[in-house]
Specification:
11 helices, five-stranded parallel beta sheet, NreC/VraR/RcsB-like_REC, Rossmann fold
Length: 229
């Protein structure tokens, strides 16, 4: 079985060392390169063609979200944002730029390999803190009229050209809450394979490249329920 190849783009040498050490402890992961800024990181990705790029949001030459977009526009690499910055604007911008997963730097080191494996499988790691930020951000942008828009859009996606089934709406709701495929399967009493099939169809119908993009679209367009709305 081939290893998951990861490039790390982080400007702090000590942090890079810690990430390399944590990931190298997993025999199914190979760190195939390191870079200290976005320019070198993008060049390294083009050369190494890794499976995943682990990117710090605050790089000396460019914002990590900006780099994420450049990566996505250049090569089919999944991007994990790893940072201490979990403000609403930063998190939302990163996902809109195509980030597949978003982790806070206080994540336990043994969890980092989990994030890499989940992202490699096509899932998005959105921990509860990030999920709350996304929902709160979208909720703050709505008003009384958003309730009417929510039901209008939901009918469009259920009955219109995109035809999201009721079960796909259920799965989309749980994706927006930050649940992994395994948790969704447990919650809905279906197999992981069935969940993956639902997720694949949801991404196609919503024209999204990742679960995180689908979650943002679902919340912003009122396709799922959000707390307090």
């Amino acid at each position: 079985m081939s290893k998951i190849r990861v490039v790390i783009i982080e400007d702090h040498e000590l942090m890079r060392f810690a990430i390399v050490t944590a990931l190298s402890a997993n025999e199914q992961i190979e760190v195939c390169g390191e870079a200290e800024n976005g320019f070198l990181g993008l060049s390294l990705i083009k050369k190494q063609n890794p499976d995943i790029a682990l990117v710090d949001i605050n790089l000396p030459d460019m914002n990590g979200a900006e780099l994420c977009k450049k990566i996505k526009d250049t090569v089919p690499v999944k991007v994990i944002i790893l940072t201490a910055d979990n403000t609403q604007d930063t998190v939302t911008k990163a996902f809109k730029c195509g980030a597949d997963s978003y982790c806070i730097k206080n994540l336990p080191r043994e969890k980092l390999a989990e994030v890499v494996h989940a992202t490699h499988r096509g899932e998005s790691w959105i921990d509860s803190t990030i999920g709350k930020i996304l929902i709160e951000n979208m909720r703050n942008q709505t008003n009384v009229d958003a309730k009417n828009k929510k039901f209008h859009n939901k009918r469009e996606y259920i009955c219109g050209v995109n035809v999201l089934s009721h079960r796909e709406i259920d799965v989309l709701q749980l994706i927006a809450q930050g649940m992994s495929n395994e948790k969704i399967a447990e919650h809905l009493y279906i197999s992981i394979g069935t969940v993956r099939s639902h997720v694949h169809r949801i991404l196609q119908k919503l024209s999204c490249e990742s679960r995180s993009q689908a979650a943002i679209k679902a919340i912003s367009e009122g396709l799922v329920e959000t707390p307090g709305l």
